[in-house]
Amino acid sequence: EGRVRLSIHVDCDADSFALKWDERRPEPIAERGDKSGFGSQVLNSLTRGTYNGEPEFVWRDNGMTYQCHWKASEMAFERNPES
Q1: 17 near 70, Cβ under 8 Å?
Q2: Out of 10, 54, 58, 79, which residue is the most buried by the measure of CB atoms under 10 Å away?
Q3: Rounded to an integer, what distance in angstroms lies between the CA atom of residue 47 and that of residue 66?
């Protein structure tokens, strides 16, 4: 019954690629200080191992926000000339 908001922001001029995962639940959750859950392990290995990103986890009573920034030049995407 929770909600997830996923956002991606690319700024080629600043060479910045940002990913944010914001998860909210109606009931309280316990903080996973050891970050040993499956999702946390995937996010950690993706961000650190693949693109040398530095993940940030912010835990709240009703959810968690994960965000990470990378250099846009390291990501595989094409710049849209109309943007």
Answers
A1: yes
A2: 10
A3: 11
